[in-house]
């Protein structure tokens, strides 16, 4: 039985990981997991002593840090403010977790984002070798977090993910569910026609994390869909997958959309997962279309369960 301590397990991405792996026995790999996932109210990652006590008592094999301040727009009002919650959680929280992992010699999987980049790389998606250059405060604080994790010296895997979408998550809407719900309700939507993104089904992210926590690997990995789309194509793919009305979808220009945002978006908001696939194999991550087919299957299965 492997023990995994999770911070941020109530969030969009962490909750899916827990759904898939809590107390399951993976027949293929002969492993099962015991997961402890305290809420922020129980273990605040700003509190070093509580983190250390939790790690010492539970004695996990691996710690996964999904915890973050993810309100990208709101973060912009805190720009440069190291006392603000965005810096505190994304940078100092990550540092606290990493230093505790170093102290107790625990492997850390730390989740990060494509927002560490500036979104100007137009010919191919960002790889692990590309130089970060964040354009908004959220991205900047996530980059500080990555740097603190590396500097801590703990055995760490930093996993950058991009546009996670989930069949279910009540607390926060992702782009896929937003498009789906609007189209189902017969409302018109606008989608950017000239931005490139690698939207990723959170089930793929969860499976990728499982593979990484079973390996001895450390370092930086990009985990995303294996091809890219524009948000306009993504909306149309959703309409097609769910047999909904295409004519409700109209294009909007990236610059026009971005102009209204407090936090600048990335025009090329995409990741390249080749390193992950080279080391862990193909078939864990999928194309956007395959990710959406799974999204539909997951929604259909849940609807059937409710009957
Ligand atoms: N969602 C995206 O579009 C996206 C894209 C790229 C990368 N990411 C990255 O993926 C990771 C997970 O994101 P998400 O969308 O799942 O986040 P989320 O839904 O916003 O959830 C944030 C989580 O962080 C926890 N948290 C916040 N402050 C905390 C604190 N002081 N101490 C302990 N826990 C705290 C929250 O716990 P409570 O619920 O208990 O408050 C919650 O579980 C983050 O690292 C994020 O940067 C997300």
Would you write up a description of this structure?
The protein has 307 residues and is of the alpha/beta class. The chain has one domain (2-306): Rossmann fold (3-Layer(aba) Sandwich), CATH 3.40.50. The chain is built from eleven helices and 13 strands. It has a seven-stranded mixed beta sheet, with helices on both faces. It is globular. The two termini are 34 Å apart. The model has no long low-confidence stretch (mean pLDDT 95). NADP nicotinamide-adenine-dinucleotide phosphate (NAP) binds next to helix 1, helix 4 and strand 5.
Q: What oligomeric assembly is this protein in?
A: single chain
Taking the sheet with the most strands, its summary is: 7 strands, mixed
Q: How many E strands?
A: 13
For the biggest β-sheet, the strand order reads: 2-3-1-4-5-6-11
And the CATH topology?
A: Rossmann fold
> Helix count, per DSSP?
11
Query: Which radius of gyration do the C-alpha atoms yield?
Result: 19 Å
On the 0 to 100 scale, the average pLDDT is: 95
Gap between N and C termini, in Å? 34 Å
What small molecules does this complex bind? Answer: NADP nicotinamide-adenine-dinucleotide phosphate
Query: How many structural units, i.e. domains?
Result: 1
Can you give the helix content as a percent range? 40-55%
- What class would the helix/strand composition place it in? alpha/beta
Level-2 CATH architecture:
3-Layer(aba) Sandwich
The dominant shape is globular
Low-confidence stretches: none
Q: What is the CATH class?
A: Alpha Beta
Strand content: 15-25%
């Amino acid at each position: 039985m492997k023990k995994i301590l999770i911070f941020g397990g109530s969030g969009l991405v962490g909750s899916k990981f827990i759904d898939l792996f809590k107390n399951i026995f993976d027949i293929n790999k002969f492993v099962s997991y015991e997961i402890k996932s305290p809420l922020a109210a129980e273990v605040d990652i700003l509190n070093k002593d509580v983190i250390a006590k939790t790690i010492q008592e539970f004695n996990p094999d691996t710690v996964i840090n999904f915890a973050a301040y993810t309100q990208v727009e709101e973060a912009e009002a805190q720009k440069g403010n190291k006392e603000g919650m965005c810096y505190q959680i994304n940078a100092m929280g990550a540092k606290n977790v990493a230093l505790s992992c170093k102290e107790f010699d625990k492997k850390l999987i730390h989740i990060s984002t494509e927002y560490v980049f500036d979104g100007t790389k137009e010919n191919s998606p960002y790889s692990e070798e590309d130089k970060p250059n964040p354009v908004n405060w959220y991205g900047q604080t996530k980059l500080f977090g990555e740097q603190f994790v590396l500097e801590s010296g703990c055995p760490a895997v930093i996993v950058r993910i991009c546009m996670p979408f989930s069949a279910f998550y009540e607390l926060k809407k992702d782009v896929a569910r937003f498009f789906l719900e609007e189209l189902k309700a017969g409302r018109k939507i606008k989608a950017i026609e000239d931005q490139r993104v690698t939207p990723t089904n959170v089930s793929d992210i969860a499976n990728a994390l499982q593979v990484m926590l079973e390996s001895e690997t450390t370092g930086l990995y990009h985990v995303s869909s294996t091809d890219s789309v524009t948000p306009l194509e993504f909306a149309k793919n959703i309409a097609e997958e769910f047999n909904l009305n295409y004519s409700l979808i109209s294009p909007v220009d990236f610059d026009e959309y971005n102009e209204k945002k407090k936090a600048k978006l990335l025009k090329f908001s995409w990741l390249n997962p080749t390193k992950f696939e080279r080391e862990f194999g193909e078939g864990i991550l999928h194309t956007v279309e395959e990710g959406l087919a799974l999204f539909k299957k997951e929604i259909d299965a849940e609807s059937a369960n409710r009957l």
